[in-house]
Amino acid sequence: MTSSHPIPVGLLGATGMVGQQFVLQLEGHPWFRVAWLGASERSAGRTYAEAARWVQDRPMPEGVAGMVVQPATVSADCPEVVFSAMDASAAGGIERAFARAGHFVLSNSRNHRLDADVPLVIPEVNPDHMELIKHQRRERGWPGAIVTNPNCSTITLTMALAPLRPFGIRRVLVTTLQAVSGAGYPGVPAVDMLGNAVPFIGGEEDKLSVETCKLLGELRGGGDGVEPAAVTVSAHCNRVPTVDGHLVCASVELEAQPSPDDAREAMTAFRGRPQELVLPTAPGRPVQVVAGADRPQPRRDVGAGRGMAVTVGRVRECPLLGLKFVALGHNTIRGAAGASVLNAELLVAGGWMIGAQSLHGAENGEGQR
Amino acid sequence: MTSSHPIPVGLLGATGMVGQQFVLQLEGHPWFRVAWLGASERSAGRTYAEAARWVQDRPMPEGVAGMVVQPATVSADCPEVVFSAMDASAAGGIERAFARAGHFVLSNSRNHRLDADVPLVIPEVNPDHMELIKHQRRERGWPGAIVTNPNCSTITLTMALAPLRPFGIRRVLVTTLQAVSGAGYPGVPAVDMLGNAVPFIGGEEDKLSVETCKLLGELRGGGDGVEPAAVTVSAHCNRVPTVDGHLVCASVELEAQPSPDDAREAMTAFRGRPQELVLPTAPGRPVQVVAGADRPQPRRDVGAGRGMAVTVGRVRECPLLGLKFVALGHNTIRGAAGASVLNAELLVAGGWMIGAQSLHGAENGEGQR
Amino acid sequence: MTSSHPIPVGLLGATGMVGQQFVLQLEGHPWFRVAWLGASERSAGRTYAEAARWVQDRPMPEGVAGMVVQPATVSADCPEVVFSAMDASAAGGIERAFARAGHFVLSNSRNHRLDADVPLVIPEVNPDHMELIKHQRRERGWPGAIVTNPNCSTITLTMALAPLRPFGIRRVLVTTLQAVSGAGYPGVPAVDMLGNAVPFIGGEEDKLSVETCKLLGELRGGGDGVEPAAVTVSAHCNRVPTVDGHLVCASVELEAQPSPDDAREAMTAFRGRPQELVLPTAPGRPVQVVAGADRPQPRRDVGAGRGMAVTVGRVRECPLLGLKFVALGHNTIRGAAGASVLNAELLVAGGWMIGAQSLHGAENGEGQR
Amino acid sequence: MTSSHPIPVGLLGATGMVGQQFVLQLEGHPWFRVAWLGASERSAGRTYAEAARWVQDRPMPEGVAGMVVQPATVSADCPEVVFSAMDASAAGGIERAFARAGHFVLSNSRNHRLDADVPLVIPEVNPDHMELIKHQRRERGWPGAIVTNPNCSTITLTMALAPLRPFGIRRVLVTTLQAVSGAGYPGVPAVDMLGNAVPFIGGEEDKLSVETCKLLGELRGGGDGVEPAAVTVSAHCNRVPTVDGHLVCASVELEAQPSPDDAREAMTAFRGRPQELVLPTAPGRPVQVVAGADRPQPRRDVGAGRGMAVTVGRVRECPLLGLKFVALGHNTIRGAAGASVLNAELLVAGGWMIGAQSLHGAENGEGQR
Questions:
Q1: CA distance D77 to D80
Q2: What positions of C carry a catalytic annotation?
Q3: Fewer Cβ atoms within 10 Å of its own Cβ: the N or the C terminal residue of chain C?
């Protein structure tokens, strides 16, 4: 590998809001280089600058602006590693087609998260679940594979819970205050959000209940599935007029009943595989306990760890469940594009991609596509 | 009494934000008429229009604009019934002085809420606690009395809980999304709130835990105190960029484990003393279960019952505590000025003021002030 | 006429945001009663409660909730008077079809505003332009007619300018700060507006330049057209994160160079035909000069005259053009639904509808529809 | 100079909002190093971390957190170069005292901006006005001097106008949409700004009229004053609910009547002394013409040139004055702390500080302080 960005990657759903976040997250990435952009028929054939209605606060990277957008279909031009930022309405079939054709699909969509043989991974929390890939490829006979990351609010909650696993997590009651960027583009109308809050986000409460348990679950001995954690999670989800950053108020019942100090210490000391492997976009400290009595706050703390760290504050006793705190995660970085990219880094560094590359080489040689 | 507004009332702390809300709430009131305005030395001697920096969305009523503001000290000119919108920093001593001088002080301040002999009342929830007045006057030897209403977020929560009392309330986990008007004026700086949320409001979580239990408690047989309800309330309080209306996400454990339908029915059917007595500012239905899947919303539902009703939505099962829902109350009407005014209406209609009036008459005759 | 709401009216585009505002504006109207709702094929056949995604801050009136929505096509069931809240993309042809079939169409859409034979009217400003109806019906051979009201920001500006006509209006430089409700529903995405301002609104600046001149123009002797006023209007239009109320900063060059006091006096004294005729929704004072140094403000002053008055503040010298001030109008009431309803009231009270009624009667007799 | 930050600087008014911005702007500066913090008596004696209520979106630099805040009085410990972020209420006398004691005071306060012998400078616009320092020191007999930068909205406007000087600027009509951070801390109450706009900012319109003319004026031959430019500026100033970034809608009358293309070209080509001298915080392109039809937008474009560039969009014909456009500047960087720091860089690079240094050396030797 002679290039400074040795691994070309493709991007499905490149023009949408999450797609744009992938473009930003991959800009200047030391391992990956965007080499292929796929989107709907409407966008295909136009340059990215023409096709994407750019709504990010940072400018469009020049490297992608002139690239011609391709149809979101399997193509020999598309690199082996593919990020998927597609809408759930279309993502399922397309992602399977790409995996079947030998691609590693790192998906931000919800479609396959709960499939028994699909890893749902936060690299700091359950990196070993990546092992499911082997089972998945065997089972489905795919040279490629699908890897997923959780929903944005689930990532924030689960990152904050992970350091508490040694204390035995039993029950979690969580209320979210979620930013509008989590709804995509155009997303929530301004006339619904200005000076208002909406106490409902479709499907979100279920995701928090279910995805959290899979993430905190145990990989079964044979590596053919995950035993969900026996944690009861009940959620209230709200949309509030913030731009970026999901705030999560959590009360937690822990078997060992640690003190707030113990909990804070566990959070501060917490490190995971990405930190051990020093993955390029891994934050040095994945969970950062902030000091201010009124922190974390979305606008002020969302950038911690370049958007890849979760900040936690107000760790204190809960008269009802034992412990309570507030956590904040950047929903479009740690909670979306950054999550998939970190999963890809883990795949590469953990050696899970080797098999695929050889399969892929063979496949290319045989012209199977 | 020949006037259409027979009962003159005074207003302590008239120029501040809560004071302004009292002025609005009393405008055109069928029983009460603002006859005396008290405020700090700085304001005294100026007309209300000069002294008050008016920050309400409705214009200043003409009736008060020309009234001259008085010092907030006991005076023979001040009517018997006095509303207090004073800052907690000053309220305590002044309110006591007025009660000692024969006034009925209806206070929105926190200073005396937890005093054993001071009624903390929501008329729909615990009207019988008004009986404490007798004990208070006896104990303290006051011709007048102090009556308090709870903190704005507590009122919203407790109104929604009250209809569930027959099911046996055991534990409540509540997360609030509170509007900026709750912080008074100038209150929270815009630069802290635009596109932001602040997960902390000083003292608020304790108030929710403690005041709720007093409100739901039982008046002891002798009428000399209240036995707080054995309800555990744990709160997370957040300030969000809404103008009016505290949103409250509550999970509740109830002994009888009612279904969501049963809970909704109980809430809808709920009526209290103000509805029986048809008090002037009592809402016809104090708790209104709204239909929309994404309601209640502060900007859209805060006006229910002219700001005096609490709206409830999303009544559903909580996998952790049994039942969960969202409630919304107007923090500056039902949660502040309107609460005190309704307390005053209850006092009048319930006959608790009679004794005071005679005492007061005597006192005036003897020139004791 | 025995009913308390003698005149049934239809509503085209009933389910959209402007349609909803018409429903609210017509609720409890003393002259008009919504009797027919037309909308797109997708909505037709469902009740209004089912078809409309209600996004107003006041609840849906019960009277319309159960009405079945009809297709937006000419029908014998549709009353003679029809309000049109249709999107400009569809409004043109449908409005013409209704006028051709004998209806008086009061349109809020831009399609026909600049047609030489179509009145563009603000009742306080140019009621005589209604005379164009006669010419229009003759020219086009229609038993009905189309009457339009201007764009929301133009109404606000022109109402504030109208009292200054006696001073000779020459040049106007106007910068608008427009509310998001002006963009309809879903309109502007929240992620574009929170903590942001957008210095562009498609087509708006041209409308301000052109519509203002037609409104301030003279009806030609023969009543067959309007001579636009020779006023140069240059506009900068901005979308800002306010919900309701367009704020307009205007600098004006006037031939007679009145002092700010003279201008204020002219504005305060200003009355028009709606005030003379005491039309039901006409504000008593159409232009209200507010006192506060920092007023008008959208959230605080938008309700003046129940949304039908324009408030003006900061009338002062402009070192460049002579006079400057700030004006505020409620964009969805005075600037949209309320504007059309007031036009209808003028039509009725001014006797312009008589001809149509007889024509319509004849037509009905002949079954021409 | 052996250190990497050779020039120690002091900071007056260090704990306030503008002071905090200075701290951020100077963090990692290649020439300057914060060595002394001065603030009110209330803060003096405490560490900066204790004394400052930090309200920035980036964390407090560790370097200053532990520094002990000093009283804002002349002291031998204070370095020669001093930035002043003091409130206008206190700034005047203190700044003069420091200049009299030999300090170069780079002030963001308005107190001395219009003094005939005080330079009011934007380095790209009127660097030669720094010559006034010599006159000032001579006149006042000060070993030090006061240098000022303009008000935040004036900087934005004037930066955008400067490239148009060759066309002959005659008249400017400007309407601003200003962010809340411009009001300092606590500044504007949230309850006044959420979903609202305030069409008044005290003193701001005058500053735009007067400061712009001084900035665009000519240094008189003898260097003893500035002949203000004969430009008429009329301003409408509004506060809107944005956090950072003043948006400025300007219509301009130019003698040479350039086309929009010519104006855009002049803006794009514009460079000043800071660019020639490659000053550390100078943006490469001080005025950046942005492409999007709806740009610049505060939240999205405020960071251009790390907050030191002004972005301009929508350059088009104005039917009234000839040319119109929208400009955006970061009010707390380019419009405040960054402006003073760039002035200091110009002072150093332009050699204006040499005299002071020797004076200062002498003075130190003589222990005059």
A1: 9
A2: 152, 246
A3: N
